[in-house]
């Protein structure tokens, strides 16, 4: 049988090329223990909603479970609350697939002081979440420096950045942000041509549609996009969270798509979104994402979960901005994960129009 399989793979290389694997993405879970909500919109995640999502996830093999930041409730925490909440989350997430590697990014609400990463935050986060996957101590070295690290498996390097340092309100942390970018460029420069890279982080670049404000410091965003342009051929995925919406930012070069930043929706409903998580399917050989399944619930269905699938990962509908595009209209509908009319923080309707396309693009 093994010989026959070998002959089939040799004769039909596309057969092996088409093999897919999946990653589970749990972003912005914002678990608030010891509380129960009568409604879960514009609130943190109570244990009943969190466990409902965990129980809805289909058993399977996930090489990686990626958590793009904000595991904790909003607005600052004691060290004990951090430890207790991290332990609760990791216990239940690891039970989904005990062999999965769990890769969390540091979020702005995972810090002891809101939006401000410090040495004590790095210490608690590392010991609670990263120590079990740190085989040789390399993760500890870089994470204690600035909250970033790399996890390598065969020909895939998953680089987990700390973009809290990049935030507009953290201009005083710009030297640490530039040091992180220098490290990122060095790591990318050492990779071989046959290697692939996934970049994972919490706060995405560009304009936040909900708050209508720039997320990163301009100089840091410019330096970052120059790095992406240089190594775009190696980068097969950029994955962020923070906005709680199912969204994307497109890094553009001369009108062509250089690298999309896929933004995962949040389980937390802080921005009026439906609670959601995602399963992303990727090609085992080239590590490119080719399908995203989003699972969501709402407050009127008694925690019944629904789903939709997105495959248009070339994002041509955004590049062309065709107002008659049914894909574009559906993308905006799903932005808040089928919540209904989509609005920004100031109450303005977010619609499929030129402004939506413009704020989707990062053109340098």
Rounded Rg: 20 Å
Number of domains: 1
- How far from one another are the termini? 53 Å
Q: Say which CATH homologous superfamily is assigned.
A: Metallo-dependent phosphatases
Specify the number of helices.
11
Number of extended strands: 15
CATH topology-level name: Purple Acid Phosphatase, chain A, domain 2
Shape: globular
Helix content: 25-40%
Strand order of the largest sheet: 4-5-6-9-11-10-15
Strand content: 15-25%
Question: Could you describe the 3D structure shown?
Answer:
The chain is of the alpha/beta class and 364 residues long. It has one domain (20-363): 4-Layer Sandwich (Purple Acid Phosphatase, chain A, domain 2), CATH 3.60.21. Helices cover 30% and strands 21% of the residues. It has eleven helices and 15 strands. The strands form three sheets. Strands 4-5-6-9-11-10-15 form a seven-stranded mixed β-sheet. Helix 4 runs parallel beside helix 5 (119-130) and helix 5 (119-130) packs antiparallel against helix 6 (138-146). The longest helix has 16 residues, at 79-94. It is globular and about 50 Å long.
Comma- or semicolon-separated keywords:
alpha/beta; 30% helix; Purple Acid Phosphatase, chain A, domain 2; globular; six-stranded mixed β-sheet; seven-stranded mixed β-sheet; 364 residues; 15 strands
């Amino acid at each position: 049988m093994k010989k026959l399989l070998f002959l089939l793979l040799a004769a039909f290389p596309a057969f092996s090329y088409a093999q897919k694997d999946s990653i589970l993405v749990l972003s912005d879970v914002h678990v608030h223990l010891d509380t129960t909500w009568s409604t879960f919109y514009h609130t943190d995640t109570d244990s009943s909603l969190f466990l409902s999502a965990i129980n809805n996830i289909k058993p399977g093999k996930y090489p990686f479970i990626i958590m793009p930041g904000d595991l904790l409730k909003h607005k600052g925490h004691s060290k004990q609350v951090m430890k207790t909440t991290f332990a609760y989350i990791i216990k239940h997430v690891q039970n989904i697939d005990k062999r999965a590697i769990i890769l969390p990014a540091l979020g702005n609400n995972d810090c002891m002081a809101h939006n401000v990463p410090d040495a004590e935050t790095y210490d608690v986060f590392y010991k609670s979440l990263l120590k079990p996957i740190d085989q040789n101590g390399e993760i500890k070295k870089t994470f204690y420096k600035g909250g970033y690290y790399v996890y390598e498996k065969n020909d895939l390097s998953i680089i987990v950045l700390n973009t809290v340092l990049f935030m507009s309100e953290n201009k005083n942390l710009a030297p640490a942000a530039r040091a992180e970018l220098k490290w990122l460029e060095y790591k990318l420069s050492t990779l071989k041509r046959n290697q692939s890279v996934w970049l994972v982080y919490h706060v995405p670049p560009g304009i936040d549609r909900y708050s209508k404000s720039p997320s990163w410091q301009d100089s840091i965003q410019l330096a970052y996009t120059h790095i992406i342009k240089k190594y775009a051929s190696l980068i097969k995925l950029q994955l962020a969270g923070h906005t709680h919406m199912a969204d994307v930012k497109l890094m553009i070069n001369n009108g062509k798509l250089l690298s999309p930043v896929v933004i995962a929706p949040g389980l937390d409903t802080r921005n009026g979104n439906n609670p959601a998580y995602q399963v992303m399917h990727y090609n085992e050989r080239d590590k490119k994402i080719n399908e995203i399944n989003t699972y969501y619930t709402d407050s009127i269905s008694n925690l019944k979960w629904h789903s939709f699938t997105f495959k248009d990962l070339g994002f041509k509908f955004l590049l062309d901005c065709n107002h008659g595009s049914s894909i574009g209209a559906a993308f905006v509908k799903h932005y808040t994960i089928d919540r209904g009319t989509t609005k920004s923080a100031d109450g303005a309707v977010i619609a499929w129009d030129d402004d939506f396309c413009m704020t989707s693009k990062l053109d340098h």
